[in-house]
Design goal:
The protein has about 250 residues and is α+β, with helices and mostly antiparallel strands. The chain is built from 7 helices and 10 strands. It is elongated, with a radius of gyration of 22 Å. The termini are far apart.
Length: about 250
């Protein structure tokens, strides 16, 4: 029996975003199973396929307008299909959209075959310039696509927001978010004092857990503005930020 071929695109994709000092959005989507690997054992060559976008096709945030983004999504699907039909052994690992370009990132073993196939495919693409960019190993993925601890929290925030909205919660109404911290008593005591001064309602739950509550709308930018600071604050205090929960508000 022939061994099963590795899927080019995995089933567990997540997204997050960040803002530049100029207010531009850098949006990143990735295969989260690859991000959670402790060591990458295959596909040791990185390749990015970049599409440069005309400034008239951009929103003020630097992201493409819906019509252009729809065409890029269609190109993505065509590219994956072309690679599959060509039986190229590769992994589709991430997408980066920022400041007038969109990049599809892959990891490959036989980069010469990949480069030949993608160059052939790109020559037939109309309306967009296509550039194939070599990347060193998994470095680009690990450094620029894989989320760090703070942006991992944004991903978890969005997942929880989506679940609550699906369950009927009204995102425009205030929700009382309960943020949990775990750590040693001295660290939690220090966290408690600071958060009380910042308007949180703090509750000690034993000697190793603390819950701090505050109201917020169920919107990702507002909630992540809070949780990003709490993740860093917990780390600096020698404790762990363990996420948040809230009751549904209809």
């Amino acid at each position: 029996m022939m061994p099963a071929k590795t899927k080019i695109s995995g089933d567990n994709w997540v997204s997050y975003h960040m803002y530049s000092p100029e207010g531009l959005i850098r949006r990143i989507s990735l295969d989260d199973d690859l991000a959670n690997e402790s060591k990458h054992n295959s596909h040791q060559y990185g390749r990015s396929i970049r599409f440069d976008l005309d400034e008239n096709a951009l929103l003020p945030t630097g992201l493409p307008v819906d019509e252009i983004n729809g065409r890029l999504i269609a190109l993505q699907e065509k590219l994956i299909g072309f690679l599959e039909r060509s039986e190229v052994d590769c992994r589709f690992t991430g997408i980066v959209t920022f400041g007038g370009y969109k990049e599809f990132h892959f990891q490959v073993d036989d980069f010469q075959t990949f480069d030949f196939i993608v160059t052939k495919w790109g020559a037939a693409v109309q309306d967009f310039s296509v550039e194939l960019i070599p990347r060193e190993g998994w470095e680009y993925f690990d450094r620029y696509i894989r989320p760090d601890e703070v942006y991992r929290q944004q991903i978890e925030d969005q997942k929880l927001i989506d679940r609550m909205i699906e369950a009927g919660s009204n995102p425009n109404k205030l929700h009382f978010l309960e943020h949990t911290f775990r750590g040693k008593p001295d660290a939690l005591s220090s966290i408690s004092e600071v958060l009380k001064e910042e308007g949180f309602i703090v509750e000690d739950r034993g000697t190793t857990e603390l819950v701090a509550g505050k109201e917020s709308e169920l919107m990702i930018d507002g909630i992540f503005g809070i949780t990003a600071n709490l993740v860093l604050f917990a780390r600096e205090s020698g404790a762990e930020y363990a996420g948040w929960g809230a009751r549904l508000v209809i």
